């Protein structure tokens, strides 16, 4: 099963050879130590061979990491921390949950690449926490999921972080439309149980997967906002999501730049009137400063119990570590609203 998934995800000659080596390792390990022993070996093989090799492919131009300029920056830290706190709450019940990452990307990003080094954004993001031995426990939940990759100058994307939090009974579907990125995503998630990667438009994937059979779960929507009408599209899609899965937890990530219609997005979220709709933003600059990414935000529908409070308690720590200009948060729709 693993071998077939990897072969379906690669097309270049180098990638095919990598898949062949991986399958050979599978066969050898299973024949010598059985399935139980093979699991540990293959986990080691994937972390120490497959992931570094996929990062090498980025450097020689065989894969396209479009998020690479921004991977591990303040926006990733904020977004991924929010997701981890939500999943931590969902894991509090034994019943299975479903997670959908609608814009999966590549799964891993090479922080030593020319692109990442050019902007250096990760150094002002996740890089600020490397030597901190006194981080709050709730932040450490997130940091422990990403720190294993930092020594090899890699940062995991949101589908990898989510996959690492799945239990045996949980599952993840992630979609990516870019043809090269989706192949890389399949390779990087191949070792995770309960994960399916779709080569599909994000909004079509949500429409196909929601409502999930588990009846509880998280949907993460974080578009690249390359389309000029992305905010309008989100506002339209929210109405459909409410009709299809009104009690699901949704996280919408958005950038804050001068002249972007962020206020309209928040008003549309408020008008949806889903209970426990919460918004949190992290700002590096005043929101109307021209020509730069001033900050980012997340809107959370049906925010799990205590998730907003736990996140809000971490904002002073994030502000100090990442030198934030501001970190406002508020309820758009409180507990008492009727969905």
Automatic annotation (TrEMBL):
Listed under GO cellular component are: cytosol
Q: Where is the active site?
A: 222 (proton acceptor)
**Domain of life per record:** Bacteria
Task of the protein: Specifically methylates the adenine in position 2030 of 23S rRNA.
Read off the PANTHER family from this record: RIBOSOMAL RNA LARGE SUBUNIT METHYLTRANSFERASE J
- UniProt entry keywords in alphabetical sequence: Methyltransferase, RNA-binding, rRNA processing, S-adenosyl-L-methionine, Transferase
Annotated site (Interaction with substrate rRNA), which positions?
Answer: 65
From which source organism is this entry? Answer: Micavibrio aeruginosavorus
Q: Which InterPro entries match?
A: RlmJ, SAM-dependent_MTases_sf
Cited Gene3D superfamilies: Vaccinia Virus protein VP39
Descriptive protein name:
Ribosomal RNA large subunit methyltransferase J
Assembly behavior: Monomer.
Q: Specify one Pfam family.
A: RsmJ
- Residues that, per the record, bind S-adenosyl-L-methionine: 80, 103, 158, 176, 201-202, 222
Its UniProt entry gives the catalysed reaction(s) as: adenosine(2030) in 23S rRNA + S-adenosyl-L-methionine = N(6)-methyladenosine(2030) in 23S rRNA + S-adenosyl-L-homocysteine + H(+)
Q: Supply the enzyme class, top level.
A: transferase
């Amino acid at each position: 099963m693993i071998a077939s998934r990897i072969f379906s995800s690669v097309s270049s000659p180098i990638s095919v050879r990598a898949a062949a080596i991986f399958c050979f390792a599978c066969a050898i390990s299973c024949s010598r130590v059985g399935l139980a022993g093979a699991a540990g070996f293959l986990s080691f093989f994937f972390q120490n061979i497959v992931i570094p090799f996929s990062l090498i492919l980025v450097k020689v131009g065989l894969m396209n990491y479009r998020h690479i300029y921004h991977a591990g920056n303040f926006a990733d830290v904020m977004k991924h921390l929010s997701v981890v706190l939500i999943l931590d709450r969902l894991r509090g019940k034994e019943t299975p949950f479903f997670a959908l990452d609608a814009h999966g990307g590549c799964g891993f990003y090479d922080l030593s690449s020319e692109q990442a080094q050019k902007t250096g954004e990760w150094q002002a993001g996740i890089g600020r926490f490397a030597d901190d031995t006194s981080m709050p426990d709730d932040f450490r939940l997130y940091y422990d999921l990403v720190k294993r990759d930092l020594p090899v100058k890699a940062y995991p994307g949101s589908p990898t972080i989510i996959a690492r939090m799945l239990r045996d009974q949980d599952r993840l579907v992630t979609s990516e439309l870019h043809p090269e990125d989706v192949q890389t995503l399949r390779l990087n998630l191949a070792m995770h149980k309960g994960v399916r990667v779709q080569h599909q438009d994000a909004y079509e994937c949500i429409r196909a997967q929601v409502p999930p059979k588990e009846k509880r779960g998280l949907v993460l929507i974080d578009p690249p906002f390359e389309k000029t009408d992305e905010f309008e599209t989100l506002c339209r899609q929210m109405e459909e999501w409410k009709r299809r899965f009104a009690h699901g937890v949704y996280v919408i990530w958005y950038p804050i730049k001068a002249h972007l219609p962020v206020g309209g997005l928040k008003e549309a979220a408020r008008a949806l009137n889903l209970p426990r709709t919460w918004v949190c933003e992290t700002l590096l600059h005043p929101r109307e400063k021209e020509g730069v990414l001033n900050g980012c935000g997340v809107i959370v529908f049906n925010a799990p119990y205590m998730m907003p409070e736990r996140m809000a308690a971490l904002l002073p720590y994030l502000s100090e570590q990442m030198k934030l200009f501001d970190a406002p948060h508020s309820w758009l729709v409180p507990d008492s609203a009727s969905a």
